[in-house]
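Recall the central idea of this unit: under ordinary conditions, the amino acid sequence of a chain determines the structure it adopts. In this exercise we apply that idea directly, starting from the sequence alone.
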Amino acid sequence: MSRLAIIGGSGFATMRGLEVLDYQQSDTPYGPASAPVMWGLLGGTELFFLPRHGAGHSIPPHRIDYRANLWALKACGVERVVGLAAVGGIGGAFGPQVLAVPDQIIDYTYWAGP
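Accordingly, the structure predicted from this sequence is:
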């Protein structure tokens, strides 16, 4: 079975129920990840967790180094990633506690240069 990681966003700074066994800080070519990667067990299943906004939600969205975060997870042997996010709704159909799965994603992980 492949190693799974969850990247938590706003509202997901911790992973409830995760029995943390270790923290792994990785040096990456892009700098440090948002926080040390947590490794542990969730319901008996191995899981890695990384809070995207750092400890205490200290990193604003425009300062998150997504490349460093993914590099750090890859260095832990992670092969699959689920990213969680909490955002405001666009219309009445997307109110509180509605799960939406986007079919269009904008990738900001490329380097556009100075």
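Residues 66-75 form the longest helix (10 residues).
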